[in-house]
Amino acid sequence: MISDQPEINTLVRLALGGMVIPTRVEDSDQHDILLAAPTQVRPPEVGAVLGLHWSTPRGAYDTTVTFLGVQQGPIPLWRVHCGGEVSLVQRREFARASVDEQLPVALVPIQTGITSVRNGELIDISEGGARCVFPSDTVQEQREAELHLDLGQRMIVVVGQVLRVQSRHDGTDEVTVVYELDDQIADLIRAFVFSRQRRQRVRAVRR
Question: Model-level pTM greater than 0.85?
Fold first, then answer.
């Protein structure tokens, strides 16, 4: 596998004809990736260039891939060729704000045929991910999940991947979810983060 290519089971997003389509890496070799064929989406023309976006603990990656065709099987797959330059925005470059009061958050693991909602509290948040506290055994690492975030005046929903689950001394779990956002949601979270940072600076000065 070449460097900076998404690993098998990584959740990725394809930019296609003005749409952003979530899918998953099912297999890969040295230069090609096999993606789960998105449902209810017509495949592009062979040779079409698509945007490919994914997240890792290092940050958010962007590149372009060339569509090679559909591979039929029990799970239809899209084969794409990785030939574009890969850019990385490291997570530490995202502004992050800690939350000093209780803000509710709900997590919904995305599993076929199963819908379960777990309620918790937000610890901190950035445009690249969020840390939350949930009851023990809420979700497993590497699972795809929805986060329903209460940002005070606005409730938003983001889809991401559970990067890390750590047990806490009080019997709860600290859950880190990473995600990639469209511009509108990114703007909302950025405004929330900057507002929190300003509030925290004012409090620090008053002390």
Answer: no
